Amino acid sequence: MSTVPESWKELGESADFVCYEHQINAGTLYIGYFKSLTEEEVLQQHILSCLSNHSDMSFEDLYHCVPVAEKEISSDWDLIESKIYRGYVAIQLGRQSHHCILINAAASKGRNVTIPEVEFTVEGPREAFVESLDVNLNLVRKRLPYPDLRVKELTVGSISKSRIAIVYIKGIANEQYLQTCIQRIEDVQFDQITDSTLLQQMIEDNSNSIFPQTIGTERADYVAWAVSSGQLCVMKDGSPTAFFAPVNLWSFFITYEDYYLPWIVGSLLRMIRVFAVLFSVYASSLYVAVMTYHGQGISNVFLPTIVSSRINVPFPPIVEVLIMELVIELLREAGARLPTKIGQTIGIVGGIVLGTAAVEAALTSNFLLIIVALSALASFTTPIFRMSSTIRILRFPFIFAAQIWGLLGIFICTFALVAHLLRLTSLGMPYLVPIYPFRTSDLYDTVVRPPYSKFHHRFSFLRSPKPVRFDKKNANKKRDLKKRDIDE
């Protein structure tokens, strides 16, 4: 690398950096690129072949001759270096020149678009995001071929130089939310952003809260729906997960498959999820409270069964519950960390064997085993993984409070939880809206999924400049053709 220009010396310390000379009438061209980042076919057929066939052209004429769309001439070394690290080929005339032709020859290596793995659905499209930002933007744009769809691109990370794209619809997305999102991303001070989930935590309103304030998704159709509703979507190059904001608490119990099902079925499934979350949070703590302080409240119908199941258990209810909860968490973590087939076997066999052995060894009662198992199943009904993890963690403070104060402790924990949720915001929007602040007009798509004729307005809490989707007067009209119209 002794012949490379002085400004390229640092790049030449890497073994995969290639630099060689090419003579033209105007002088010596120095061509540099990373072979691990460039597409060999583009380099050979479009760039090097053009240089060989037009050696009599000037430096500027060569720029116009190369048949590649993404190219530019720059003398800013920071820009030149950053482009080379992204797969561009740099062509410099002479050792002392400050101008380089930058030609995009980046290799498009990565996996193909596949079905969603986390948010799998029976109904609807089966295209999931991949690790390429350009491919992900294509998946969104082909669903929203709208002239006002905008993409704002930023760079984050002093080392990673990660490409971040904010997708929104001009005239529908609120400008204040947009500027807040842009400002927070620009203010991120971190050297390496490996995934969008890191960025989620960095720009959320309250990073110390266990409740997520943005929703991550791998589904392009879900992002298209959110953007058309007035929300902002953030994508990162190299991450198969996008996230959007602002969101409220009720959004975490909605799966996009609800919109592909009849509205009555979708509403019923949502109500089941809400009930399942409440059961998962309160079931174990209610068991501890009742068995420790409020045994007189047990019905005579269940009393013999509960007493007979606990008669040989040597532990108090709190220890019994904690043992079973920790066993469930261990099985869940083991199943998640092992390969798929082995993980499924561990989860099923381990649950059956450990549950049966725990009851036979009198470490726990049959009644509690059923409660803990149902609580674990109920926590899985939450469609957003980050909220599911939050529900798992919430159970433990309620259990300890029930052991200390009984039902009063559960009420205290509930009030503390509600107070925390009242203070949370997402890009400045209240987390509990439309319940607090109460908005009757925005209750239509929370626990109940209404028919599409009711979606004539966007949510008012999104503060969209264009709140009306369509004319509600004609929403329910269904005009049938008469026989004479068909004959004509």
From TrEMBL:
InterPro entries: Spore_Ger, UPF0353/GerABKA_families
Keyword DNA-binding attached: no
Segments traversing the membrane: 274-293, 343-361, 367-386, 398-422
Pfam family, one: GerA
Keywords (A to Z) from UniProt: Membrane, Transmembrane, Transmembrane helix
Lineage top rank: taxon: Bacteria
Family stated for the protein in its record: Belongs to the GerABKA family.
Protein name: Spore germination protein
Species assigned in the record: Paenibacillus lignilyticus
